[in-house]
Design goal:
By secondary structure, the chain is mostly helical. Strand 1 and strand 2 form a beta hairpin.
């Protein structure tokens, strides 16, 4: 177990090193940072002084080492556009993005599991066929179009939910949340459904296919021959084995939800990291862009590490393979 975790952590550091190099490259290839910070009336001498103060005249290796060291301490520099620390901007926007991502993931996981089990056990029923046909919408339609449709129906026509913003928020220490207010829940519902719809259909189809495959295995037939009730067979044996691939997909999709919340936040003007990243791209705010890439990569790596450990704990076959390999070495 320890060897397995150490190896995964080493791989995570390697991935973060590559992402850090890509993020650092933005400072070299996306325009001159000095031009983004000063006006046209700034003299060349003043530009050189500022360049020296920022360490832009140092060697590339020195600049990269300083960038990694600062980023490891949460220091991503100053925003070119807002002239504020990037860490402060991220700290203000991160709760909104994580809140939206968690709600979207819960919706996708719960509905995906329930609908996947139902359609897998009643695959020839009319309602099951209707659900499968409707799931094509979540796969086929782009995210921004789904968001626009929801706004049209629930905001414009029915007037039930707000079309933009986060609603009223409550601050708990340095964290802000809208899940403790009614307006906050109303504001998060449509963006969360929009963001989690594709993941929900993916989980539903995965659970359905895995459940149907497991129900055809010999040990399920043997359990039926022993006279075990259907509830015990379906939920005690089949569904438990179905969870192994679902855990992996769900963990990866959670990282995808966080990374690809940009479109949803743009449609609903959700004040999260995705909207901040789009604004930074528009104004070539490189420190914010670099910090966003590093943060998303870190969340991906962390989630994948947790999924690997959970997969190791759930699947006894993996423990046996790794134990045998480690014993041989």
């Amino acid at each position: 177990m320890i060897f397995f975790i150490v190896r995964r952590i080493a791989e995570a550091f390697l991935v973060m090193g590559v992402v850090a190099l890509i993020s650092f490259s933005l400072f070299r290839f996306v325009g001159d940072p000095i031009n983004n910070m000063v006006g046209q009336d700034t003299s060349q001498a003043e530009r050189e002084v500022l360049r020296t103060q920022l360490g832009l005249n140092d060697a590339i290796v020195t600049q990269f080492a300083r960038f990694v060291a600062d980023a490891s301490h949460g220091d991503f520099g100053m925003s070119y556009r807002q002239a504020r620390p990037v860490a402060e901007l991220i700290g203000e926007r991160l709760p909104a993005t994580l809140e939206l991502s968690v709600v979207a993931s819960v919706i996708a996981l719960v509905l995906g599991m329930v609908l996947g089990v139902y359609t897998g056990l009643h695959r020839k029923g009319f309602l099951s066929r209707l659900v499968m046909a409707g799931s094509l919408i979540g796969i086929s339609l782009p995210t921004f179009l789904i968001g626009i449709f929801l706004i049209l129906i629930f905001s414009v026509w029915l007037g039930w939910l707000p079309s933009f913003g986060r609603g009223d928020v409550v601050r708990i220490g340095g964290w802000s949340t809208g899940l403790l207010t009614v307006s906050g829940w109303k504001a998060v519902l449509m963006p969360a459904v929009t963001l989690g719809l594709f993941q929900m259909t993916l989980i539903m189809r995965l659970v359905r296919s895995e459940l149907m495959e497991i129900l055809r295995t010999d040990y399920i037939k043997f359990a039926r021959a022993r006279g075990l009730p259907d509830r015990s067979i379906h939920f005690g044996h089949a569904l438990r084995n179905t969870m192994i691939p679902v855990i992996t997909i769900t963990g990866l999709q959670l990282g995808s939800i966080i990374a690809f919340a940009i479109i949803t936040e743009s449609v609903f003007q959700w004040p999260g990291l995705g909207l901040l990243f789009l604004q930074s791209v528009q104004f070539a705010d490189i420190p914010v862009m670099a910090a966003y890439l590093l943060l998303v990569a870190f969340l991906f790596v962390l989630i994948n590490l947790l999924v690997d450990v959970l997969y190791y704990l759930v699947d006894p076959r993996l423990r046996g393979q790794l134990g045998g390999t480690h014993a041989k070495t």
